[in-house]
Every structure is written in structure tokens, then in C-alpha cells.
Design a protein that fits this description.
A: 79 residues; elongated; B: 217 residues; alpha/beta; 5-stranded parallel beta sheet; 8 helices; 6 strands; globular
């Protein structure tokens, strides 16, 4: 067994890692947001982010848009 | 015809940056498990573990298959003492998988490098004397120890991470693990989905934390 193994392969990208691990692109986008928030030190937003602010929130937004409430609100704010 | 011949002649290339981790899946090991994921990601390796493969396949086949795919393997022999659950038994899984890795290196043409980790110095010479002459990497049962031993075992030709950078990645992964666990409603990190997401999260952190990988302003 060598004392130290020298790694010469290029540093893998996030996409390569996700492909190797079989993680969906949509989830990778959420993980990227989560980790960027953590790296920036904005920890308070972390838990809210994956629980309420993730896919559940976008589903809720879509549902609200289908009802027309968001578009009306947006229209009002644009005026 | 020529296309078929070409396809038959082409050998499937296996990734060269994958690492098999052979560790105990218990609650008290969780911080070291996260440190291993963070550290290996910091070195540009993609960790794999038996827990990520669906359970329908025979366990031993899964282990051998995964080991064959991986260029490196890391075996932690910390749990050689008797556990508290009756009947009290030591854990033989880790030494057994280490044996498989050693056999793979001896018999396969594909390059494979294995490393032994231990919590206590000189214990391996008593518990596994067949590996006499092999240096174990002693981490002392701490995440910092795991990161330090990884820097002793590995080196990169480019983008060499420092222990301080690995510690930053570890701190990010600990926070990310809590959020991933919460979001997946997972009871433990020792299951397929949290593990796979942790590996991706650690890669994202590594790319932001390692100075030479950051985009130049």
C-alpha cells in the first residue's frame, strides 16, 4: 500500500457528480441554492429553504397562478 | 456490422475518481461519516457506499460490484469491540470488505488502492495481524482526525485542498445534512437518497471552498 496516492484526474464538476450519483437536475438546483446559502453564511434561511421554499413552494405558486390570484397581484404591482 | 463490431470491441470505461467507503452505519459514527464524505469530495473523489444500491440484489454481489467500480477504497476498522446489543458481537463486515478489496487488488488488472483507518493506534496489529507491515491511518475518532488522515493518504496533482479548506467543507456538509434530512423526512443519513444528495452537496461546497477552483475575478 503506497504512503500517498496521487490523484491526477480532473476535479469533477457538480453535474458529473450528480450524474454518477443519479441525482435529478431539479434537485441539484435546490442543493446548489442550499449550499450557496450555507457557504455565504446565511444559515437562518437554510431549513426554510428545502422545507418550504423548495418544490412545495413552487407547486403552491403554480396553483395560485392557475387560480389567477398571482397574475392579478402582479398586474396590480406593474401598474 | 462494423458498428456492432466497434461496439463489441469497445471496453466500458470505468470512472477513475470513485472511492468506496466501508464504515459502520451507526449513529455515533455519523460525524465521521460526514467528515469522510466532505474530505473525499475535497480531494475530487466521488464516494460510494453499499447503502446506495437497491436492496433487491444480493448484498455480497452489490459490495463486490461497487468495489470493482471504485479506484480507491477506505476501510474503517474502528468497530472491533463488542457492541452493547445482546448477543454481544464484534462487527465483521468491515474487515470482510477490506479482505475483498485486498483480493481485488491482487487479482484484478484494474488498479485499486485501499486504505485502512482506525480510531486507536497499534490496535490493528493485534486485531488483524495478517496486515502486518501495513500502516493504518489513525483518526482518533474525531472528524478533524479523519480529515487529517485523508490528507496523509491522498495528494492531488492540481487543486490540492488544505486541512482548513476540508474543515470548511465539513462544516458546510454538517449544515447541509441537517437540511437534507429534514427535507427528505429521513430518520438517518444511512440510506440511499440522503447519501447521494450529501455527496452532491459536498461537491458544491468543495468547488466553492477550494481556493484554486474558485473562478478568478
Amino acid at each position: 500500500m503506497p504512503a500517498k496516492a496521487l490523484i491526477t484526474t480532473p476535479f469533477p464538476t457538480v453535474q458529473e457528480t450528480a450524474r454518477e450519483m443519479g441525482v435529478a437536475a431539479k434537485r441539484v438546483r435546490l442543493l446548489r441554492k442550499l449550499m450557496t446559502t450555507i457557504v455565504k453564511g446565511q444559515d437562518g434561511r437554510v431549513v426554510r429553504f428545502l422545507t418550504h421554499g423548495g418544490m412545495a413552494a413552487s407547486r403552491a405558486k403554480r396553483r395560485a397562478a392557475a387560480k389567477g390570484s398571482v397574475t392579478k397581484r402582479k398586474r396590480a404591482s406593474h401598474r | 456490422m462494423t458498428g456492432r463490431r466497434r461496439r463489441a470491441g469497445r471496453r466500458r470505461r470505468l470512472p477513475t475518481n470513485t472511492a468506496f467507503i466501508n464504515v459502520p452505519y451507526d449513529a455515533s459514527y455519523e460525524s465521521l461519516f460526514l467528515a469522510l464524505i466532505a474530505g473525499l469530495s475535497g480531494f475530487g473523489l466521488i464516494p460510494h457506499a453499499t447503502l446506495e444500491i437497491p436492496g433487491s440484489e444480493r448484498r455480497l454481489n452489490r459490495i463486490v460490484g461497487l468495489l470493482r467500480r471504485c479506484r480507491y477504497s477506505f476501510h474503517d476498522l474502528s468497530r472491533v469491540e463488542l457492541d452493547s446489543t445482546p448477543p454481544q458481537t464484534p462487527r465483521f463486515n468491515m474487515p470482510f470488505e477490506l479482505g475483498l478489496a485486498v483480493a481485488l487488488k491482487q487479482t484484478s488488472r484494474r488498479r485499486h488502492e485501499w486504505f485502512v483507518f482506525e480510531a486507536k493506534a497499534h490496535r490493528m496489529s493485534k486485531s488483524l495481524s495478517d496486515l502486518g507491515g501495513t500502516d493504518e491511518h489513525v483518526h482518533g475518532g474525531t472528524p478533524r482526525g479523519v480529515l487529517r488522515t485523508l490528507t496523509d493518504a491522498l495528494a492531488r496533482s492540481r487543486h490540492r485542498p488544505t486541512v482548513a479548506e476540508l474543515e470548511q467543507i465539513y462544516a458546510d456538509v454538517v449544515k447541509g445534512a441537517a437540511a437534507i434530512k429534514e427535507s427528505l423526512r429521513a430518520e438517518s443519513l444511512y440510506s440511499a437518497r440522503p447519501f447521494k444528495e450529501l455527496v452532491v452537496a459536498a461537491r458544491i461546497s468543495a468547488r466553492q471552498r477550494i481556493k484554486s477552483l474558485r473562478p478568478q475575478a
